[in-house]
Amino acid sequence: MERGTTRRNRWRRWIIIGGVLVVAFFVLWGVSASAKRSRPPVALPPFAEATPDSSQPRQAYTYFYYWYDLPDGPHNGALTDRPAEPNASYRNADWFKKQFADMTDAGIDVALAVYWGDAEPSSDVGLANMSRAAAAMSAEGGDPPQIAMFLDTGLIGRWPKGQRDFTNPDNQRRFYSLINTFYSILPRDQWAMVSGRPALWMWASWFEISFDQELFDYVSRRFEEDFGVRPYIVAEASWRFATDVGDGGLDPSRPIHLDGFYAWGASLTGFRDIGSSIAAVGPGYDERELDGPGRSGRFADRENGRFYERNFEGALNTGARTIVIETWNEFHEASDIADSDEFGRQYIAITRRYLDRFKAMPGASP
Fold it and tell me: Which of 51, 64, 112, 119 has the most CB within a 10 Å radius?
């Protein structure tokens, strides 16, 4: 009898002790989680960015989305704004000529061709037609903008997670193959050059991408082996530091060294001076009619051009040598400045007015 009572008491003690430990664990976990939530953000070092070449002319870039195939092809639905050309299509060289003529009117020097490789039927076919249009325009005495690759990393966000680890040599080769294909299609005389090197522009790393400096060193080495020159690499600010998705995220102690960084989002949040030599501006933004992952109804009123003008004023005050306009014709998100049903050529005219001021500014970038 006493033995049974002792055994029951012992089990009660262990149950009580176990319960206390469980409660203590959750209390401590809650305190820790709360501390993490309330912890101030890590102060990141300044941009590890190359000093701008003061001999390089001031340049204006814009993101050129050439995936449209109106009226019935891909990307013809859910357009918040509508292009002025009802038959806008990557299959049509004349449409590219019209876009390039309008970019020239706006004072734009470089078209950043938004590239998805095999994931978009427009990418290679459209790039070839874009090149033909530029050549035809030049042959007729025109001066089309130069062309650079804008590697849309939204494409990489669709890859399996294992293929987004760019510390893996196989994945580095897959990444570089997109760049090689683009510049193999595009004739060298149409390449946008910065300090004698072809510009290569990249979107953000917001898709659980792991990388370090070796990815960019690999791309530069391979490009030089294949084309005889190293690329001038510009990336969105999210690429500033090495990142290991499986081991705590970005590492501020390992900055990425590239030729330039910029901040995406100017069409929504306006110009932000992030200490970079590249200033981004945009006219407004509207995704209220769009559905899908990442959509939350974000909106920035154009204010009949005043939002765009404030963007430009801020950019000019930085002394940056490069301005990038977000975007030429992303009609889904209504960040377009191209000729459209909604705004006509209003934003082409505003762009030209500010870019004339930009290019007339004396001196080098600070």
Answer: 112
